[in-house]
Design goal:
Number of strands: 14
Bound molecules: adenosine-5'-diphosphate
Helix content: 25-40%
CATH class of the largest domain: Alpha Beta
Radius of gyration: 22 Å
Strand content: 25-35%
Structural class: alpha/beta
CATH superfamily of the largest domain: P-loop containing nucleotide triphosphate hydrolases
Shape: globular
Strand order of the largest sheet: 6-7-8-3-9-10
Number of domains: 2
Number of helices: 9
CATH architecture of the largest domain: 3-Layer(aba) Sandwich
Distance between the termini: 45 Å
């Protein structure tokens, strides 16, 4: 099963054109949606999750018309929003049981089995009696995944999931995501390029409401081979370079590394470098020069 998005447009009442003719083919597995803040990622996620209307366009998944058959979508959808309200004085087992009931699992025996399985799968079983108010950021995210997995969804939407997680929690969350992405469509919306690189088999970069590129991380990066040039300079010398030719700069050990994308060495003093997904991203989205 694939998700097909065609010519999706959305303009908010305040005049912001948040989605501009967005078309995407999203296959099974993990699909990364990358873009800066304000690019339109959440608008797209909310539209797919049937939480808001598009002005024009279509979305289909198998035989479901996503924009029209909202109930059908909700039956196969697991959604982990950017922020989700938790009841701090309720424990994880009780709250998941409550969500499972809302999802329509009415049989008590079946429900307690489902709740147990999901809490085990997200490594929360031993913390099931703890109130959610005492959960760490990572535990909350894993609880979010547990609730998103109720009812065996075929489409899982995860919006900006790793903000505020420490490296161990982030790792654990990644492993969990890649485990669940077999045989389902998982759309991961994020501005963290590394997360997409390590987790997703396909990606799209969107900016100012438009799809700027799509592909696999490997192919995307391979296309830049031979065109990425880097140079280490003193921070104060940045002004000597034509900034319109640089895609990014970053501090490395107190000095500055500048990067340019070009068919030839910009001024003969740069060194050829292996491209990264970050280079692709900055080249596509526009440069992000610090101190510029
Ligand atoms: P992202 O998730 O990539 O940060 P959003 O989809 O949240 O992007 O926002 C895209 C654009 O639409 C931004 O300019 C944002 O300010 C605007 N926007 C988002 N939601 C609304 C809304 N409910 N009303 C008006 N403007 C909105």
């Amino acid at each position: 099963m694939q998700l097909y998005i065609r010519d999706l447009n959305k303009t908010y009442p305040n005049g912001v054109h948040a989605l501009k003719n967005v078309s995407l083919d999203i296959p099974m597995g993990m699909f990364g949606l990358l873009g800066p803040n304000g690019a339109g990622k959440s608008s797209l996620m909310r539209t797919i999750a049937t939480l808001q209307q598009a002005d024009t366009g279509t979305i289909t998944m198998g035989d479901i018309d996503v924009l029209k058959e909202k109930e059908k979508v909700r039956k196969v959808l697991g959604y982990l929003p950017q922020e989700f309200g938790l009841y701090p004085r309720v424990n994880a087992e009780m709250l998941l049981d409550h969500f499972a009931r809302l999802k329509g699992i009415t049989n008590n025996g079946e429900r307690s089995k489902v709740v147990k399985t999901l809490l085990e799968r997200t490594n929360l079983w031993e913390h099931r009696k703890k109130n959610l108010g005492g959960y760490s950021g990572g535990m909350k995210q894993r609880f979010g995944i547990a609730q998103a997995l109720l009812g065996n969804p075929k489409l899982i939407i995860v919006d900006e999931p790793t903000a505020g997680l420490d490296p161990t929690e982030r790792n654990r969350f990644h492993n969990l995501l890649s485990e669940i992405s077999e045989n389902v469509i998982v759309i991961l919306s994020t501005h963290i390029i590394d997360d997409v690189h390590s987790l997703c088999s396909q990606l799209a970069i969107i900016s100012t409401g438009e799809v700027k590129m799509t592909g696999t991380p490997l192919d995307t990066v391979a296309k830049y081979r031979g065109r990425v040039w880097r140079k280490i300079i003193d921070k104060q010398d940045l002004h000597q370079y034509d900034r319109s030719k640089l895609i990014s700069n970053r501090l490395v050990g107190g000095r500055m590394e500048i990067t340019s994308v070009s068919d030839s060495n910009p001024d003969g003093t740069f060194e050829a470098a292996e491209p990264t997904l970050e280079d692709v991203y900055f080249n596509v989205v526009g440069n992000s020069l610090i101190g510029a």
